[in-house]
Amino acid sequence: DINSWLQYAITRYGRGDRLMVVRDVTRMHNLEQMRKDFVANVSHELRTPLTVVVGYLETLLDAEDSINPRWKRALQQMQQQARRMQTLLNDLLLLARLETSDTVDDEKPVAVDLLLLGIRQDAQALSAERNHHISLEASSQLRLRGIEGELRSAFSNLVFNAVKYTPDEGEIQIRWWQDERGAHLSVSDNGVGIAPQHINRLTERFYRVDSSRNSSTGGTGLGLAIVKHVLLRHDGKLEITSTPGKGSTFTCHFPSGRIV
Ligand code: ADP
């Protein structure tokens, strides 16, 4: 194998000389492609039957007067879990698409301030009874060249996370600004925060700090993986800073070349 060959080459040619290693990665690349295709196909195939299940559950629950309370509770649980599965499949499909397709065609100038306005509205509706205070400071002159739908997914994941991981009455700040280095979007919260040892792994698929806590918040563990891939496709970078018990800030940095 490659390692014993390398060992041999080093003893034979000595460490002082130059050594060139050529490794054929075609097989690895093909396997990775198969994995991506498989995930995308399975997610796609599962979506249709699940839509049927959710549809029938809705019909049954519409007739709630004629069903007994125990059945109703069971149906509601089923509906909740089926919806979770739908979110999971949608996230998996989105991630598969982000990993495989090209961007360039659909890129156009995106008014990020308007995008954020909509996201804030959705987040406020989502957290209606929890009294979060969500402030928004966004430059209306600053547009980003990119794919609007993808940017919306990424930014709303960050804002919804802030809502999910911040206790009632919490403060959430969204900012979108420009400086000499480029354009930046940050989402800060004064919520639960994240311990340092987790920070580097947060953008891995299905990685969650505390899965027991998260099952109640209903996440899929794919949100930050989606954010990372969307940023990659827009030449951007994600920076995460956090203090446990005090709060977190997620900042997306985009290079000046992306500003229009
Ligand atoms: P999830 O669906 O679990 O929210 P994400 O990929 O969006 O998945 O986030 C991964 C993990 O990062 C979450 O499970 C949570 O532990 C942590 N996290 C994300 N955003 C925040 C935040 N604003 N405050 C605290 N922890 C966060």
From TrEMBL:
<comment type="function">
    <text>Member of the two-component regulatory system PhoR/PhoB involved in the phosphate regulon genes expression. PhoR may function as a membrane-associated protein kinase that phosphorylates PhoB in response to environmental signals.</text>
</comment>
<keyword id="KW-0592">Phosphate transport</keyword>
<keyword id="KW-0902">Two-component regulatory system</keyword>
<keyword id="KW-0808">Transferase</keyword>
<keyword id="KW-1133">Transmembrane helix</keyword>
<dbReference type="GO" id="GO:0004721">
    <property type="term" value="F:phosphoprotein phosphatase activity"/>
</dbReference>
<dbReference type="GO" id="GO:0006817">
    <property type="term" value="P:phosphate ion transport"/>
</dbReference>
<keyword id="KW-0418">Kinase</keyword>
<dbReference type="GO" id="GO:0005524">
    <property type="term" value="F:ATP binding"/>
</dbReference>
<keyword id="KW-0812">Transmembrane</keyword>
<keyword id="KW-0547">Nucleotide-binding</keyword>
<keyword id="KW-1003">Cell membrane</keyword>
<dbReference type="GO" id="GO:0016036">
    <property type="term" value="P:cellular response to phosphate starvation"/>
</dbReference>
<keyword id="KW-0597">Phosphoprotein</keyword>
<keyword id="KW-0813">Transport</keyword>
<dbReference type="GO" id="GO:0000155">
    <property type="term" value="F:phosphorelay sensor kinase activity"/>
</dbReference>
<feature type="domain" description="Histidine kinase">
    <location>
        <begin position="41"/>
        <end position="258"/>
    </location>
</feature>
<protein>
    <recommendedName>
        <fullName>Phosphate regulon sensor protein PhoR</fullName>
        <ecNumber>2.7.13.3</ecNumber>
    </recommendedName>
</protein>
<dbReference type="GO" id="GO:0005886">
    <property type="term" value="C:plasma membrane"/>
</dbReference>
<keyword id="KW-0067">ATP-binding</keyword>
<keyword id="KW-0472">Membrane</keyword>
